[in-house]
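Hi L., both proteins are below.
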Amino acid sequence: MQTNVLYYGDNLDILRRYLADESIDLVYLDPPFNSNRAYNVIFRDESGNNTDAQLLAFEDTWHWGPDAEAQYAYLTNTARNQGRVPSSVSTIVAALRSGIGENQMMAYLVEMAVRLVELHRVLKPTGSLYLHCDPTASHYLKVLLDAIFGPSQFAAEIAWKRTTTHSDAKRWSPDADRILVYTRGDLFTFNPVFSADQEAYREAEYRLTDADGRRFALGDIASPNPRHNLMYEWMGYEPPAKGWRFSRETLDRMQEEGRIFHRGPGRRPRVKRYLDEMAGTRAGSVWTDLPNVHPWSNERLGYPTQKPVALLERIIEASSNPGDIVLDPFCGCGTALVAAQKLDRRWIGIDVTYLSIAVMRARLKDSFGLADVEVIGQPTEVEGARAMLVGTGLEGQYQFQWWALDLVGAQPLGAIKKGADRGIDGVISFSTGPRGEVGRALVSVKSGSVGSAMVRDLKGVLDREKAEIGLFVTLEEPTGPMRQEATTAGVYHSELSGRDYQRIQILTVRDLLEEHRRPDLPLLVLPAYQQAERVAKKAAEQGELFG
């Protein structure tokens, strides 16, 4: 199975076609919530600043329709699923439909249930699943996960404080997300992780000092559970009711090292826990120490549902080891993949929106220099590109457009729309002078029939927008008059490179895929997306298995 790859397409289809049983060590998924919000991706402008030009990336809404009905039938009909869906899941899904009806929430739950069944299948016996959600659906999702994994495999419900409390809220402020954690089996990977110590906690807990100034807190020396093999007298102390926490040899060594604190006659000694030896407070199920990606954060890309890398690092460090495989089937802008790469894990990312695929590829390149991340499922020949448009309507046109723009390295653009036949779909920015002057190549993508009038329209847009170069990207082959029209548009002379460039360039999908042609542009082409920070890989210690 390939790793460190991206898959473009419906994750349900990709899970079934490409991922083998018990092949994944850790699944993290952050699916669109059922919150009825439309999200926009905010892009950078030519100068590198954020711009109000926005493009709809995905609509965070689910509706009951033919697809949800088909998935419901698969989940509840053994003849259709051929026993791949446990009867407990069929029962729960049917009961939910009976209880809450056919609505957006039920559509969301059906679509999630069929995917969670597949994610359970691909998890290794030592694997874990982290499902990131919000309180609007977390209770329903937990019932589904209980049915799929079994109630005994519930490991935690983590509350992550996502934002500050809203002072103007007319109800309890919705400031936290939920992360539901389930394990595939009883023997699962878990490495304790620590949160940053709070100053108030340090002052209250580590209030004692040794002669050399080392601060310490006192820990219990008695076992919390019955330890019949550790019932012995030590230094005149009777054993605790359940036995000592440590062996006699360990206590003797700790005594020699000055790590035992004697509290006086009749009082059991305690062990010293030094502040300078503590990694921090061990993280529990309420996480308040990992702030969200703020507007001023260096890691912010402008992606609306972007999660902080530190959040994903904690999850990946806790439930996987170096070399393990991390899967994110709704990977959006790729934060889980960045954290996995940083921690020396292998990874697989899936997304149904090609815009997300383009953002991820750019982010992985900027963060780690991964310039050739393979995208499985994207077109590699003309007929595959044509298939993106079949039966998908406007959505298919946008997917084709984003894919074509990514091929030429353009930033999608939604601000210069002048009509269906005269729209500018993207822009490539490049340097034009030694003091940071910026020029633009405007990109028009066409997936249907084309003619010379469209080239004339592009030339008019260049004149109106005072842009230097125009790129006409077409699925269909251009006509002779179109090429003639492009030739008559003249050239752009770059003072920086000292050469001329055809002012209007026609590139076909066949040129791009089969001839590997690229736009002829001046040097120093600027990045299409908000650049991610360079990330240094982090060495992680080998973990353990806990039952």
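That was the first. Here is the second:
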Amino acid sequence: MPHGYTGKILHVDLTTGTLTIETPPESFYRTYMGGSAMGLYYILKEMPVGVDALAPENVLTIFTGVTTGASVSGQSRVNLNAKSPISGAIGDSQGGGFFPAELKFAGFDGIVVKGRSSKPVYLWLKDGVAELRDASHLTGKVTGEAEALLKQELGDDKIEVLQHGPAAEKGVLFSSAVSMSNRNNGRTGMGLVMASKNLRAVVVRGTQKPSVADPKALAAINRLGPKWMPDNPDMAGLGKYGTASVVMPQHSMGTLPTRNYNEGAFEFAEEISGETLYEKYLRGAAEGKQDKLGRDTCYACVVRCKRVVELEGKYPVDEKYGGPEYETIGTFGSYCGVKDLAAISRANQICNMYGVDTIACGATLAWAMECYEKGILTPEDTGGLELKFGNADAMLAALEQIVTASTDFGRLLGQGSERAARVIGRGAEECLITVKGAEAPAHMPQAKRSLALIYAVNPFGADHQSSEHDWMIEEGIASDLYLGRMKLLGLENPLPPMSLGPEKVKFAYLTEAFYAMMDSVELCQFVWGPGWTLYGPQETAEMVKAVTGWDVTIEELVRVGERRIHLMRVFNAREGFDRKQDKLPKKFFKALQGEGPTAGIALSHDEIEAALDEYYRLAGFTPDGRPTPDRLTELDLAWAAALL
């Protein structure tokens, strides 16, 4: 029997209703390790070139990794991949919670979905048995209602549900897949792909926990987590204040996107900070019990960074729908000039109820606000909404129109800012912050220069979780912990702040490869990683070895990440993507306004073009950004070279 994984992959043809189980060899698992890399293998093998993202021929993959379900922090992750309806490039989205581990316990490492059902269905997996069931009764139900109905129907409160919400039924482009009614596979429109297939949900329950090769070694690694947390200020802050712990550091360093990325500091940052969220808004805060009631976790994780908000009053929030992450606070808060955490928390609930990505949705609203402020959008366009920066009520009203597609304006914004800008014209494209159609997250590449490169080259658009951030290696900022871990990846020396020379490009590529591995092994990037995280590269290799029994090294893990990057680029290349799509929005090349340390800062076209040249050289791509047959063969991907 394999250690760490079940050895079973479920293939679902929704058109015919056929379910088949594949049992790949161990070598297949060691080559790809699960997640995104494994999903890309099936997508490239089974999806025709040039299909529409919402056609039955699009292949949707749902994969855990070889360590998912092990008793250690940060392993309960799942990756969804398919052609993205947003970009037409590869779509990729990660999520956590309890669904990933439960999928493994239900007897499957992953699911490959093709076709389209003639009616809404859900996939029910329990202890190695799979069946499709009617889901017509779930149509139009918000995520919490649908999950409650499924638990009642199946007579088990411990089932886990990954579903699209009613926004996807209405065609909202940036619809997400949601588990636990508050954990999102948010980016790239994977919820809309699920809806296009009439697959409302995947429901899992199981008792088949995979074996572990070395339980004692794994337990020893797991014990290090609670021991190290108090001495790691990043992790202690993450546990207490959640991802919103970075609001104030980002603001103080001028990297908190404000008023649709026009500024890098928000004068009301303290009012939307992780500290304020903890002290006033978490469930139990009034009684001083927020550490127990306001902090949730993923399966077997000691960090407990997930927020739980419960509010009454003008902006009610049900604890079922969780609480806002940093990105949500950024996009619905500082992006929109909104300083009310209750309104931001309400926006988070609406997104989770209807199943939409908070980054894309909040950033689209911020784009619309800038257009309104500049007169590009008028009250006639908005249906009378005074969509100005800082207007929380108008923001929430527009959000309701998006998720319900109840007005022309809501339907327009539901297609994302880039498509909406094409419809509006009148200079609306000058306000965009999109890369490959994806709205940029709340980390500013003007100051974090390597992120500018990663935002440009990332196969599925601007993403903040596809590489390590510049602070991990910059002089005067990086700690000894950060620099020691960087050396394990071959990055010897700290680098000047705001630099983007060859060594910073090397930093970007090597950490991107490590992150790509984590999205294949399926590890939480707040727990495992090359920089600020609870565990570093060496512990990552030791943990994978303890679970699987494979004598893996850091170098082998980085190679897995490189495979994932190259497979994504192969997919994009065959769909017509090359260097021309690896570009940043005009706004990033304009000087930041306002106050703070980054006021007046901008990217330059020359430095980005030079960084692209160096990145392509390091990766082994052609000068126009396409993978080469020789490099693919070196990575044991010769089969993929034929697809070029």
